[in-house]
Specification:
Layout (H helix, E strand, L loop, with lengths): L7 E11 L5 E8 L8 E2 L2 E3 L6 H13 L7 E6 L10 E9 L12 E8 H6 L6 H10 L2
Keywords: Hydrolase
Family: Belongs to the Nudix hydrolase family.
InterPro entries: Nudix_hydrolase, NUDIX_hydrolase-like_dom_sf, NUDIX_hydrolase_CS, NUDIX_hydrolase_dom
Length: about 140
């Protein structure tokens, strides 16, 4: 990264819940815009100026899925230089566990939002490095 290059900051949330049969699910959004238009991704987005990463994670979750989560647990920082084709993007990832799977309502720039079984989500080509973030979040459960 050159001195003139500035990294953008984002926050993503891995929201986990079990269905009535004990199958683990993750809440994902379908991206409405490039990059990765049409691909499934974690709810998340850019931090507003002066906003804390955890606050941004909760805000983006609500905006994109209509879902609120109580405790957000820090998972890690993801800063590989090529993780986003738009440029240098550093994301703060969080995890939340819900007791139920409330029906999500897609909003903001999400074309759709839904709960996917974890095995199905991880078998998909998720946007960015979101599969790795989910795997890391599962290690913190």
């Amino acid at each position: 990264m050159s001195v003139d290059e500035v990294a953008s900051l984002t926050a993503d949330v891995v929201v986990l819940a079990d269905d009535g049969d004990g199958v683990g699910h993750v809440l994902l959004v379908q991206r409405g815009h490039e990059p990765y238009a049409g691909c499934w991704a974690l709810p998340g987005g850019y931090l507003n100026q002066g906003e804390r990463p955890k606050t941004a994670a909760a805000r983006e979750l609500a905006e994109e899925t209509g879902t609120t989560a109580g405790a957000l647990v820090f998972v890690g920082v993801y800063a590989e230089p090529d993780r986003d084709p738009r440029g240098r993007v550093v994301t703060f990832a969080y995890r939340a566990r819900l007791a139920t799977m409330p029906p999500p309502v897609a909003g903001d720039d999400a074309a759709a939002a839904r709960w996917l079984p974890l095995h199905e989500a991880l078998d998909n080509d998720l946007a960015f490095d979101h599969a790795a973030i989910i795997v890391d979040a599962l290690r913190t459960v």
